Amino acid sequence: MTKDKLTKKDITELLPHREPMLLIDELTDIKHLHSATAIMNVKKNSFYVDGHFPGNPVLPGVLIVEAFGQAAAALTAHGIDKKEYDNKLVFLMSVEKARFRNPVIPDCKLELKIEAIRSHGRVWKYKGEAFVEGKKMSDAQWSATIVDRK
């Protein structure tokens, strides 16, 4: 039986990402290969704050999309057979219908609710919504594939 919550340490055992590009801090409410909620603690001292935008920091939308991808990769890597995932990576293939509804301001907890829509072999399709204190900030659909690690 797989765990229904992953810590940042657990996530680093599944994903190759490291600071500052490891964006998600935990994965909760995991429903095996179906859905999960990722938590991204958006901090005032994050690497993008000084330059995006000086005096008015906003989490770049592209990093929200990256966090969606990391959450989906962790969900998939956590759920599939460990022997099947050995020496593999999950790569983002496409992003569709990404919408940024409200700016994400540092010093908040971004909740990324993701769902696997379908899979065909090594290709997976996902959708997700991002919230701060219950307010929808963005949503997207994307595809990813499992590839051999080089």
Can you give a write-up of this model?
This protein is of the alpha+beta class. The protein has a single domain (8-148), classed as Thiol Ester Dehydrase, Chain A (Roll), CATH 3.10.129. The chain has three helices and six strands, in the order αββααββββ. A six-stranded antiparallel sheet has the order 1-2-4-5-6-3, covered by helices on one side. The longest helix has 19 residues, at 61-79. The chain is globular. It starts with 7 loop residues before the first helix and ends with a strand. The relative contact order is 0.20. The mean pLDDT is 94.
Strand order of the largest sheet: 1-2-4-5-6-3
Taking pLDDT < 50 over at least 5 consecutive residues as the criterion, the unreliable ranges are none
CATH architecture: Roll
- How many strand segments? 6
Give the assembly state of these chains. single chain
Mean pLDDT: 94
Identify the overall geometry: globular
Main sheet properties: 6 strands, antiparallel
CATH superfamily: Hotdog Thioesterase
The tally of structural domains comes to: 1
Q: What attributes does this structure have?
A:
single chain, six-stranded antiparallel β-sheet, 150 residues, 6 strands, 20% helix, Thiol Ester Dehydrase, Chain A, alpha+beta, globular
Could you give a quick summary of the protein structure above?
The protein is α+β, with helices and mostly antiparallel strands and 150 residues long. It is built from three helices and six strands. It has one domain: Hotdog Thioesterase (Thiol Ester Dehydrase, Chain A).
